[in-house]
Predict the structure.
Amino acid sequence: MKKLLVCVLCACALVACNRKEKTPIQQCGGYDVQMTFLDNGETMRADINGDIVELSNVAVVSGVKYAGILNDTLVVLLSDGEKWTLVLDDDQIIDCRVK
């Protein structure tokens, strides 16, 4: 019985480690953004109006920053707490809010 309990606990721990954490859908101007965090936060998969882009965590002094390329556009998602900002090609800065 103890072996079964240990196996179940180990299986639950492995599932928790592999869990993909999704955030609520963000409304960023005309863009709906659904973020899924992978690899303990090192990578983010962002669904932006149905287009999927993999973003990598970038070191910043405060908050978090993820960057990647989608259809020849530099996509950056920044957060300094619970509020997110979408930046496109370093010149379009769009504040986001939970939809």
